[in-house]
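Please predict the structure of the following assembly.
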Amino acid sequence: MFKKGTKLYSILTGSCPKCHEESMFKNKNPYILSEALSMNENCSNCGTKYKIEPSFFYGSMYVSYPVGIAFAAAAFVISFFVFEANINVVFISIIATLILFMPVILRLSRNIWINFFMHYDKSLAKK
Ligand SMILES: [Zn+2]
């Protein structure tokens, strides 16, 4: 399931949605906050332009909402059912999770968003 050629691979690694060979982001580490969202213009392997229209990645805000909910739900399940924390602690742990994972959430939603519009192309991968 998690190998080159699947959308999940491109989404989880942030690689080019067409060839899966290159990272779309200039810096692979999302926690260098000044570079968290700086992306390459084109794929250096297949030449795909990531920003297919101006402000293309504003649309990823729609995706970041359900992605954020997924992280919040995970924080809820872990703190409430695994650690059996009281409701205040659960609330704080959800807020903390959303803040801590914000760079990851932002990148994941960009990866998911661009994968709606671009699909893996085997012929580009081998260039
Ligand atoms: Zn590419």
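Helices lie at 7-13, 60-82, 87-100, 102-117, 122-125. Residues 37 and 107 are 7 Å apart (CA to CA).
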